[in-house]
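re: ur question from yesterday

yeah so i grabbed the chain u mentioned. its 354 aa long if i counted rite. heres the sequnce exactly as i have it in my notes:
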Amino acid sequence: MNKDENNASVDSSIRTYEPLVSVVMTCKNEVRKIENCIGSLAKQSYSNFEIILIDAKSTDGTFEKAYNLRNHMKSLKNCKRYLVISAEAETPSKGRNAGVGMAEGEIIAFTDADCVAEENWLDNLVKHISNGKMVGGPSILTHPSRSRILDAIDAVLSSYIGSGSSPQFLSIKKVSEVYAIPACNMAISKRLFEEIGGFNEDLRYNEDSELCVRLREKGYKIIYAPEAKVRHLMGVDSFVDFRRLIYNYGLQRGLNIRKNPKLITKFNAFFLIFAATIVSLGILSFFSSIALELILFMVIVTIIVLLAESIRISVNNRSPSLMMVVFYVFISEQLAYNLALLRGLILAEDKRCS
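ran it thru and got these structure tokens back, copy pasting raw so excuse formatting
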């Protein structure tokens, strides 16, 4: 074999090497969703992975249903190992960290039990994970049925304003560097995960954002791969569900910013400056009519921006009737999230989630 043939052989072996990926999940009481999730992992085109599920003492039969799939999973060529463990895990972070501790793969991929991964999910994550990076992709909100209000919610959440620039919902079309990715669609080398200390087990929410903050502080990149998709059945099946979700997101972000100010996003900072300005002008309005006019101007500008974004979405969806529904969702979302954020910043603790 000559030198060129030898180099070609080496290059070919490098291209075909697929490191073991450990898919780690934690769940509690997801009996209606767990089989679809694991089924989607069983169909992965990637040829070298294992699955580690940490069940946080479910009481609805989730553990039993997942455990009973072991014979089917063992028969699969691509899935090298399938573990279902019942353990005390007061927070998802604790369950994920425990799963990583049992992992044998050099790459860790995280998803949630209410997610369904597309067949090439792992392939697309691994493709972008070289050179000390964390990789993630879209978390596509999925519903059991469709309605005009759900279409509007999806459109709002996939927009820059509606998502608050969060890659969890924002529709990003190309491979990009981002500031954070959600734990339901995340991959990282085990070495790097252990180097930065894993998930913060004291956090029940925003633990993925906090992990990303620490990663960026150490100079590592976070890459968004739009083709690495999971579909997320978050239980947002009505406007009431949506409003509850958004309120809780805002509340928990506010509570966690109190603990770690680095969790504040540019949208959070903008709103807090906006709110402080409104309050200051409100006080000044007792002494000057100009202050009241400035408040009115700020409110009008806000409405115009949201209305313009609603028009853009309705045009892109070729649905003029969608515009007013989207505008209503925008107004509701911004009020619910930001008022909850303020509450979280003021509260000493969230007694409802303790």
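noticed a couple things. The first strand starts at residue 21 and ends at 27. also The domain at 3-114+184-209 is CATH 3.90.550.10 (Spore Coat Polysaccharide Biosynthesis Protein SpsA; Chain A).
anyway ttyl
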